[in-house]
TrEMBL record:
<dbReference type="InterPro" id="IPR058240">
    <property type="entry name" value="rSAM_sf"/>
</dbReference>
<dbReference type="InterPro" id="IPR013848">
    <property type="entry name" value="Methylthiotransferase_N"/>
</dbReference>
<keyword id="KW-0004">4Fe-4S</keyword>
<keyword id="KW-0408">Iron</keyword>
<feature type="domain" description="MTTase N-terminal">
    <location>
        <begin position="50"/>
        <end position="167"/>
    </location>
</feature>
<feature type="binding site">
    <location>
        <position position="94"/>
    </location>
    <ligand>
        <name>[4Fe-4S] cluster 1</name>
    </ligand>
</feature>
<keyword id="KW-0808">Transferase</keyword>
<comment type="function">
    <text>Catalyzes the methylthiolation of N6-(dimethylallyl)adenosine (i(6)A), leading to the formation of 2-methylthio-N6-(dimethylallyl)adenosine (ms(2)i(6)A) at position 37 in tRNAs that read codons beginning with uridine.</text>
</comment>
<feature type="binding site">
    <location>
        <position position="59"/>
    </location>
    <ligand>
        <name>[4Fe-4S] cluster 1</name>
    </ligand>
</feature>
<feature type="domain" description="Radical SAM core">
    <location>
        <begin position="190"/>
        <end position="420"/>
    </location>
</feature>
<dbReference type="InterPro" id="IPR020612">
    <property type="entry name" value="Methylthiotransferase_CS"/>
</dbReference>
<dbReference type="Pfam" id="PF04055">
    <property type="entry name" value="Radical_SAM"/>
</dbReference>
<keyword id="KW-0479">Metal-binding</keyword>
<dbReference type="Pfam" id="PF01938">
    <property type="entry name" value="TRAM"/>
</dbReference>
<dbReference type="InterPro" id="IPR002792">
    <property type="entry name" value="TRAM_dom"/>
</dbReference>
<keyword id="KW-0963">Cytoplasm</keyword>
<feature type="binding site">
    <location>
        <position position="204"/>
    </location>
    <ligand>
        <name>[4Fe-4S] cluster 2</name>
    </ligand>
</feature>
Length: 491
């Protein structure tokens, strides 16, 4: 685990008997100091430090938020552990599809008997699901054993909320409807030493008619470019060489800044950071993908050869009902433009099956796009009705068995095409950033190509975090088995 502390703050020097500061992040450091005092008391009473576990149920943005929570917990003095050993379990929830909510309730049910046995235990819930008023009502009524509930807008206040809970012994609930605030310079604890996600913007203004994200993440706001560059420079100084820029729609980055800036310009600034080797980003909305961005990608040495470009549906009718604001033809010509500018780019996508009113002909259009684009991989989702979104009350909801049949057909098509797309690299030597020991064979390591493909090859843990040229020997559908090649041979 890699702790990033952005400010040189010594928690032990903070006077916790004084009034808490009003400004952020000083206020949160004050509450971290208070919590740390409690942690020391816990250690004296119990003979060990309290243990915590933050579990993540959502997308990469949620994952980055979890790193912020872990960073704060570590500053306070908690030791990180597995869920079944933790005195403090936090679920950072997602609500993009109904099954995400179901999973959380299921796991909460399992925590209840554990909490009964262990009076020290605390349970925290945060993230997107908590932004839904009916969820919080249900928790308050039927899940009284939960200790802290907060949302996506006030995650920076975690130390303050924890401190309140430790003093009051009562359920603490704090949910904000929205915010225009971005609090910088709080601790962070990232999983890998050599790569990191970085928020470049928060929220979403697109209101795709099926999607709950704009309601639970609030309005779009961009971080100031100097904050982003500053964070990247600190990360690089700390050993990071690959960054993933995160936002629901990175292509509209900078529109709401006092001095507006395009995403393409931001990328050019980031490219200048010495020591940074790879830049990734997600997610790109097709309607906002500019010619300027395509040009920057084409000329860049550091931007990875991978673009995640969610299409959602291939039918212009359905795209209109989804409020995606592009047609099938516009999407296809965009793909053509990108392929021309960056010939070896890998394209991936998200597709929803069974949006209200989707006919067999609409679905055929989706299959047609999949065949035309030849995606390197695609995430396929069954449409899930989200209360409060316009699509939830649309007529002609598609019957379950029809959706299931389409979903299976789509998956088969996507997998066949992806295997073919993956296989084209067989026999070439490519640069790989080694990420981990291979899950299936401890004598092998796993790394990623610039185009995001995974490769397993024989090697030891000393390679983790380094760039290695690897011969791609055998394609196994969506990953490669490779062999270390002579340095400098990569194409
Ligand atoms: N901001 C990103 C996507 C965030 S959600 C974008 O616009 O591309 C990730 C994916 O979940 C979406 O691309 C979509 O395919 C899927 N999704 C969102 N809402 C959904 C719903 N109600 N049912 C099924 N899939 C959904
Ligand atoms: Fe949801 Fe659309 Fe925003 Fe993506 S762009 S988060 S799909 S509303
Ligand atoms: Fe889920 Fe929230 Fe991400 S709803 S997909 S965790 S923004």
């Amino acid at each position: 685990m890699y702790q990033e502390i952005d400010l040189e703050i010594d928690l032990d020097k903070i006077d916790i008997h004084a009034e808490p500061p009003i400004e952020e992040p000083a206020r949160q450091y004050y509450f971290m100091a208070k919590c740390r005092k409690w942690v020391k008391g816990f250690e004296q009473r119990n003979g060990h430090l309290p243990k915590s576990c933050v579990l993540n149920f959502g997308c990469q943005m949620n994952a980055r938020d979890s790193e912020k929570l872990r960073g704060i917990l570590r500053e306070i003095g908690y030791i990180e552990t597995a869920e079944d050993e933790a005195d403090f379990v936090i679920y950072n929830t997602c609500t993009v599809r109904e099954n995400a909510n179901t999973r959380v309730y299921g796991r909460l049910g399992q925590l209840k008997p554990r909490k009964k046995k262990n009076p020290h235990m605390m349970i925290g819930l945060c993230g997107c699901m908590m932004q839904e008023p009916e969820v919080v009502e249900k928790l308050k009524k039927s899940y009284r054993f939960v200790d802290i509930i907060f949302g996506t807008h006030n995650i920076y206040k975690f130390a303050e909320l924890l401190s309140t809970r430790l003093e009051s012994e009562r359920m603490v609930v704090d949910i904000w409807k929205d915010t225009d605030k971005i609090v910088e310079n709080l601790p962070n604890q990232r999983k890998y030493g050599f790569k990191s996600g970085i928020n470049i913007m928060f929220g979403c203004n697109n209101f795709c008619s099926y999607c709950i994200v704009p309601y639970v993440r609030g309005r779009e706001r961009s971080r100031a470019p100097q904050e982003i560059i500053g964070e990247i420079k600190r990360l690089v100084a700390d050993g990071v060489s690959e960054v993933m820029l995160l936002g629901q729609n990175v292509n509209s980055y900078g529109k709401t800044l006092n001095t507006p800036m395009t995403f393409a310009k931001l990328l050019q600034e980031i490219e200048k950071v010495d020591g940074l080797q790879r830049i990734r980003f997600m997610t790109s909305h097709p309607k906002d993908l500019s010619d300027e961005l395509i040009e920057v990608m084409g000329n860049s040495k550091k931007i990875c050869k991978h673009l995640h470009l969610p299409v959602q549906s291939g039918s212009t009718d359905i795209l209109t009902k989804m409020n995606r604001r592009y047609t099938k033809e516009q999407y296809l010509s965009l793909v053509e433009k990108i392929r021309k500018a960056v010939p070896d780019i890998s394209l991936t996508t998200d597709i929803i099956v069974g949006f209200p009113g989707e006919t067999e002909a609409d679905f055929e259009e989706t299959l047609d796009v999949v065949r035309k684009v030849q995606y390197d991989s695609a995430f396929t989702f069954i449409y899930s009705k989200r209360t409060g979104t316009p699509a939830a009350v649309m007529e002609n909801q598609v019957p379950e068995e029809v959706i299931k049949n389409r979903f299976d057909r789509l998956l088969k098509e996507v997998q066949t095409i992806a295997a073919k797309a993956c296989a084209v690299h067989e026999g070439t030597v490519k640069e790989v950033l080694v990420e981990d020991i291979c899950d299936h064979d401890p004598k092998m390591v796993t790394g990623r190509l610039s185009n995001n493909l995974l490769v397993h090859f024989y090697g030891g843990k000393e390679l983790i975090g380094t760039y290695v040229d690897v011969l791609l020997k055998e394609c196994r559908g969506f990953y490669y088995i490779g062999e270390m090649a002579e340095a400098g041979k990569a194409s």
